[in-house]
Amino acid sequence: MKSIRFWRMEVQQLTLTERMFFRDAISTLMAWELLNEEFRELDLIKKVLESEIRIVDPESLANRHKKKKAIFTS
Questions:
Q1: Helix/strand/coil (H, E, C) string of 39-58?
Q2: What's the whole-model pTM score?
Q3: How far, in Å, are 2, 10, 32 from residue 5 at the CA level?
Q4: In the chain, where are the structural domains located?
C-alpha cells in the first residue's frame, strides 16, 4: 500500500475535473462489495481526492451553519 503522501502528490497533479471523475469512479467501484474488500486503498485515494476538491459532507456543513447562527444570535 502506498503512503498518503504519495497519493496527495499524485492527486495534486490532476485537474479539478479529473479529481471529480476519479472520485466518482472510485465511489462506483466501492459499491461492489468484492472490490471494496480487495482494494481498501481506494477508500484512502477517494478521501484524498475529496480533500483536494474540498468536498464537505452535508452533516458537517449543517453543524458549521448552526455554530455561525448561534454566534450571531448571541
A1: CCHHHHHHHHHHHHCCCCCH
A2: 0.56
A3: 8, 9, 27
A4: 4-73
